[in-house]
Specification:
With 237 residues, this protein is α+β, with helices and mostly antiparallel strands. 30% of the residues lie in helices and 30% in strands. Helix 1 (52-73) packs across helix 2 and helix 3 runs antiparallel to helix 4.
Length: 237
């Protein structure tokens, strides 16, 4: 019941994360362009599926703890430190925090990609998917993944995997967001990397007949009447 497609892949120069942008409330679309890739550190980002409030508050809390850790140690955040903080917190709440996460980052030990389940279990894999559209996205990964991919191929593979969720899962939809974390800890966030469901061209191609486009002032004003009532005086302070 996560209603999301999120995924990530490791390539030879870093990590690529992807997510759709549909937020649902039951069977209704609550937000068509929400942001599901959350900041944890300059070199670590995290995709969230599940309850939106849980994923946002959890990632914001861990981002704050990582910032304090960087200030106290004067070193770059380690990916395994972020994973440990997240899994300990989620395990403490025994799954009642509905946050299924895909965490990716690059530190001094290289690129890393983890999937974190709401109960606190984790897996470190070269490519991962989570959310209600994860099966469609995983089928794309299983078909197109190969070791030591270059950046452009990795971005296209993640985009195709997110599209697989968007077009085959009712809980996923709208646009595709991409975040690239390169070796050296430099991250690039590409918001609305692709918008396959843009309705603007369709609306522009539709011609509305003149009868449905009345000009301004077409409705005559027959009478204008203004009534003024005595309002009570404001209270003296």
């Amino acid at each position: 019941k996560t209603g999301t497609t999120i995924c990530g892949v490791v390539y030879k120069g870093g990590v690529v994360l992807g997510a759709d942008t549909r937020a649902t409330s039951g069977s209704e679309v609550a937000d068509k362009n929400c942001e599901k890739i959350h900041y944890l550190a300059p070199n670590i980002y995290c995709c969230g599926a599940g309850t939106a409030a849980d994923t946002e508050s959890t990632t914001a809390l861990i981002a704050s703890q990582l910032e304090l850790l960087r200030l106290s140690t004067s070193t770059q955040s380690r990916v395994v430190a972020a994973v440990t903080l997240l899994k300990r917190m989620l395990f403490r709440y025994q799954g009642y925090i509905s946050a299924a996460l895909v965490l990716g980052g690059v530190d001094v030990t290289g690129p890393h990609l983890y999937q974190i389940y709401p109960h606190g279990s984790t897996s470190k894999l070269p490519y991962v998917t989570m959310g209600s559209g994860s099966l469609a996205a995983m089928s794309v990964f299983e078909t197109g993944y190969r070791d030591d991919m270059d950046e452009n191929d990795a971005i296209e593979l993640v985009k195709d995997a997110i599209f697989g969720g968007i077009f085959n899962d009712l809980g996923s939809g709208s646009n595709c967001d991409i975040t690239i974390i390169r070796t050296g800890g430099v991250a690039e966030v590409r918001r609305t990397y692709r918008a396959p469901n843009d309705s603007a061209p369709l609306r522009a191609a539709y011609f509305r007949p003149p009868s449905l486009r009345p000009p301004a002032g077409a409705t005559a004003v027959l009478e204008t009447k203004v009534d003024v009532f005595d309002a009570p005086q404001p209270m003296a302070i």
